[in-house]
Design brief:
By secondary structure, this protein is α/β, with parallel strands linked by helices. The chain has ten helices and nine strands. Bound molecules: calcium ion. The site of calcium ion has 5 residues, from loops.
C-alpha cells in the first residue's frame, strides 16, 4: 500500500464549476453502459481481522494491464473522465471479486469511492446494483472507502450520497482518517461504519509516543460512536504489536499481504499472537 497509492489518493475532484449539461452527459454515459477511458485491471489486498485471523475484506486497487500503479494510470487520464473511470473501476472490481470467489469467503469487497464524482446518488448506484445482482455478489458484502483529497466544498452533497449508499445496506467509511484538515469535520458530520487510519499514524507507531496517544484517543472515539477502525500500511511486527496494544484488530499492509494482481493473496500471519483483551487494558491504563 505504501509504495502503491490507491485509486483515489491521487485525485482531486471538484464539483464546482462543472456545468449541469456536462453532468447530464456523464449520467447519460452511465445509463448507456460504462466505457473504459483506458485499459486497466485490479489488484486485491486483504484487510485482516488479527483477533480471529480471518480476512475482513479485500480492497480492490486499480492497476494498469502491465501492473502500472494507480498514479501512473491517473496521470494519463483526462480529468473529464474521472467519473466514468470511477464507475468502471467499481464495476470491474465487483465482477473480478465475484469470479475470484470473494462472496463465498464471507469477506467484504472494499471499493474506493469519490462522492464528489457522483452527480445523482441513485443514478450512479443503479449500475452498481445491476452488476452486483448479475454476478451474485451480496450487497451486504460491499463496502466503500471515501477519500477526499481536498476540502469538501459541498458537504450536503456528500451527506446525501453517503446516506443513499447506507440505505442500500452498504458499509461506508473514510479512507486516510487523521490526514488532512477535512477528516475530523467529516467524521463529525457523517454517519460512518468504519474509518481507515492514515498511514502517517501507523508508520513507526512503536517509536512515537505522541502518535500512539493520538491513536489511543481515536480508538476510544471510534468505540464510543460504534465505528470500526482499520489500520492500513502495517509493515512491521513492531507496528502490529503496538497497534494491538492500542486496541486495533483490523489491519492491512505488507506485513500480512501485498496487493496481488487479479488474484486474492494468501495471508502471512505474525507468529506471536498477542492476547488482545489483556493488552488493551494495559495500554489504556498506562
Ligand atoms: Ca483505500
Amino acid at each position: 500500500m505504501r509504495a502503491t497509492p490507491n485509486l483515489v489518493n491521487t485525485l482531486t475532484i471538484k464539483m464546482h464549476g462543472t456545468s449541469s449539461a456536462l453532468h447530464a452527459s456523464r449520467c447519460s454515459a452511465c445509463k448507456n453502459g460504462i466505457a473504459e477511458p483506458l485499459p486497466f485491471s485490479m489488484a486485491f489486498q486483504p484487510v485482516v481481522d488479527t483477533s480471529s485471523q480471518t480476512v475482513f475484506a479485500y480492497e480492490a486497487l486499480v492497476r494498469g494491464l502491465n501492473h502500472e500503479s494507480a498514479a501512473s494510470l491517473f496521470s494519463r487520464l483526462n480529468p473529464d473522465d474521472y467519473h466514468v473511470f470511477d464507475q468502471a473501476c467499481r464495476l470491474k472490481a465487483i465482477i473480478m471479486a465475484a469470479n475470484l470467489g470473494v462472496p463465498a469467503t464471507g469477506a467484504s469487497l472494499a471499493v474506493n469511492f469519490m462522492p464528489g464524482a457522483v452527480y445523482s446518488p441513485w443514478a450512479c448506484l443503479r449500475q452498481t446494483l445491476r452488476v452486483a445482482h448479475e454476478n451474485n455478489f451480496p450487497l451486504s458484502q460491499l463496502m466503500f472507502e471515501v477519500t477526499e483529497s481536498e476540502e469538501v466544498r459541498d458537504p450536503a452533497h456528500m451527506e446525501r450520497v453517503i446516506a443513499e449508499y447506507r440505505s442500500q445496506g452498504f458499509a461506508i467509511g473514510l479512507d486516510d482518517f487523521g490526514a488532512g484538515f477535512a477528516s475530523l469535520n467529516l467524521f463529525s458530520e457523517l454517519t460512518l461504519d468504519f474509518v481507515k487510519l492514515d498511514a502517517r499514524l501507523v508508520r513507526g507507531i512503536h517509536r512515537r509516543p505522541r502518535t500512539e496517544a493520538i491513536v489511543l484517543a481515536l480508538v476510544a472515539l471510534c468505540r464510543s460512536l460504534n465505528v470500526r477502525l482499520i489500520a492500513e500500511c502495517v509493515e512491521s511486527f513492531e507496528e502490529y504489536e503496538r497497534l494491538r496494544q492500542c486496541g486495533i484488530d483490523l489491519m492491512q499492509g505488507y506485513l500480512f499481504a501485498r496487493p496481488m494482481f487479479e488474484q486474492l493473496p494468501t495471508i502471512t500471519w505474525p507468529t506471536s499472537h498477542v492476547p488482545l483483551g489483556k493488552i488493551r487494558t494495559l495500554a489504556l491504563v498506562a
